[in-house]
Amino acid sequence: MTHDHTNSGHSHDHDHSDRWKHDGVRVIPGDQLDPNVPSTPGMDRKAAINFARAGAQKLWAGTVTIKPDAKTGAHHHGHLESIIYVVKGRARMRWGEQLQFTAEANPGDFIFIPPYVPHQEINASRDEILECVLVRSDGQAVAINLDIEPVEKPETVLWVDPVHRDPSEKK
CDD domains annotated for this entry (predicted)? Predict the structure, then answer.
């Protein structure tokens, strides 16, 4: 069986080529991020990938910077899951109904924030800016600021890999 590439089959390939030219891969230059996103006091968020800029249906991505020795207000992101990747600096996260839990993350570390979890980002360094990449599970940004009275001394929570638990722990 032979295919005649001179008729509609060839123009069909051309249609795909044109569509993917404008609806395919997008590169968003780092100096062209959008600062017009829901904000939380103490942080500077910028959108790189979202529905409006790139047509993203299920993801939002951008950057967040926090000045040295600064912290954000308590907030959550509704039904969205969030991932923070620490690029530079040291992040201290507080979370819980009274921000009673805490953990720290360094460059190269990933932080996962489940839906509706009240949290606060803190720059744990007194002299270095905290720079992170942020990814959320929806093309729209959601940030709900909360009025929380935090506990004085949060409890430190060390991450335990659920697959490689300490063998001395009994289930």
Answer: cupin_BLR2406-like
Q: Is the pLDDT of residue 53 over 60?
A: yes
Domain-embedded: residue 137 = yes
- Enumerate residues 6+ apart whose C-beta is below 8 A from 111: 83, 84, 85, 86, 91, 93, 103, 105
CA distance 111 to 28: 23
- Contact 135/82 with Cβ under 8 angstroms? yes
Evaluate whether 91 touches 104 at the Cβ level (below 8 Å). Answer: yes
> HSE-up of 89 (CA within 13 Å, CB side)?
26
For residue 48, give the nearest of 115, 144, 134 by alpha carbon.
134
The domain in which residue 72 lies consists of 35-156
Query: What pLDDT is attached to residue 39?
Result: 73
What is the distance between the alpha carbons of residues 81 and 38, in angstroms, rounded to a whole number?
Answer: 16
* Number of domains composing the chain: 1
Q: What is the DSSP letter of 34?
A: B
In the predicted model, is pLDDT for residue 26 greater than 90?
A: no
Q: Is the pTM of this model over 0.70?
A: yes
The CA-CA-CA angle for residues 77, 149, 35, to 5°, reads 35
pLDDT tops 70 at residue 7: no
